[in-house]
Design goal:
Elements lengths: L6 H6 L10 H7 L1 H13 L6 H37 L4
Length: 90
Amino acid sequence: MTEHLPQEDRKKSTTLSVVGQSTDEYKSRGLFAYFRDSYREFKKVVWPSREDATKMTMFVIIFVAVLSAFIYLVDTAISWLFFDVLLKKG
């Protein structure tokens, strides 16, 4: 949402953070308010079940292994093409 403020009011307005409160408001409310609000937001997070987390972790590990093997094969093929075929070395 865009605010339409007069030119002089735009200069006075502060940058809004993600939670919608200005940095000046947090400065005046203190560090305790910041951590309290952060904790409230943390409680709203929906965490995956252990089974879902395990499945996602295994997917990432397998994906990284496959991608690493692919990059290794492409690198080996390019090295072979460059050194053995084009430069006739090795």
